[in-house]
Write a structure and sequence with these properties.
This protein is an alpha+beta fold and 256 residues long. It is 49% helix and 12% strand. The chain has a five-stranded antiparallel β-sheet, with helices on one face. A hairpin with an 8-residue loop joins β3 and β4 (189-195). It is globular. It starts with a helix and ends in a 6-residue tail after the last helix. The mean pLDDT is 87.
Length: 256
């Protein structure tokens, strides 16, 4: 595929996501999905088309088609406007908060009763702050071992620093999934996908489903304790989608 064809593929994927009311995206345990879905829904059809085009061009960069930001800034304008809205949490809008952040807010309830976010939160949101329990890295690694053992036939390899590699076979391809459980901030897990035979075109890039579709980098921050297996079921679907997309894009290509 050339860059225009890659952009068309991503456009098709995003149209299908919208038609399904973002069913798969809404299941991803990451706060980044809310910014994307809310922003996309606020656009008119022409604006949506412009955003999809921008995201498609960004996605093509993962596959060896770099962006000339000076000459092509107009094509990226819709994505730039979207990114300008990301990361700001309105008072009381706790759905965009990571679960580790919500846990940290428990102390604020006692120490800073006039804190703006807490003061404007609804009773249900306050209850959520007091009851949310985040999934721990030990349990996430345990479930990951089982999930990728089934999906890829993989055995985990510890790379150190909380990073584990799960290498195996999927749809006839040698696939590696890198999981980083070692984040000390609000991220609980980060994942990336690598297809071995495509490394010649993609030596340093290991995309996530979110990075190919414009709404994140594969960092998950809303995995609740007891919800680990469901989260990895979703991750399995995303890994399969990344492999399918990558295989379509690189069909027929070979090392130069």
């Amino acid at each position: 595929m050339d860059r225009a064809q890659i952009a068309a593929l991503i456009d098709e994927n995003l149209r299908a996501a919208e038609a399904s009311d973002f069913a798969l995206i809404r299941r991803i345990p990451s706060s980044s999905k809310f910014d994307f879905i809310d922003h996309y829904r606020s656009l008119d059809p022409i604006e949506k088309g412009s955003l999809r085009q921008s995201i498609g061009i960004m996605a093509a960069a993962w596959f060896g088609f770099p962006i000339n930001r000076e000459k092509e800034s107009d094509l990226l304008d819709a994505f730039t406007k979207y990114r300008a809205r990301v990361g700001w949490i309105a008072p009381g809008d706790l759905k965009r908060s990571s679960y580790r952040m919500l846990s940290a807010m428990r102390g604020i309830l006692n120490q800073e009763p006039d804190h703006q976010i807490i003061k404007n939160a609804s009773p249900d949101e306050l209850k959520r702050i007091m009851t949310v329990s985040t999934a721990k890295a030990t349990e996430l690694r345990k479930v990951a071992k089982s999930a990728f053992g089934q999906l890829l036939g993989a055995k985990p390899a510890n790379r150190g620093g909380g990073v584990w590699i799960y290498q195996g076979q999927l749809a006839g391809e040698e696939v590696g999934v890198e999981l980083d459980f070692g984040h000390s901030g609000y991220t609980q897990l980060r994942y990336q996908v690598r297809i071995a035979k495509l490394a010649f075109c993609q030596p340093n890039n290991k995309p996530a489903y979110e990075s190919l579709h414009g709404f994140g980098t594969g960092r998950w921050d809303q995995i609740e304790e007891g919800d680990e297996e469901r989260s990895f079921a979703v991750l399995g679907e995303l890994v399969q989608a990344v492999v399918e997309i990558s295989s379509k894009i690189y069909s027929g290509r070979s090392p130069s």
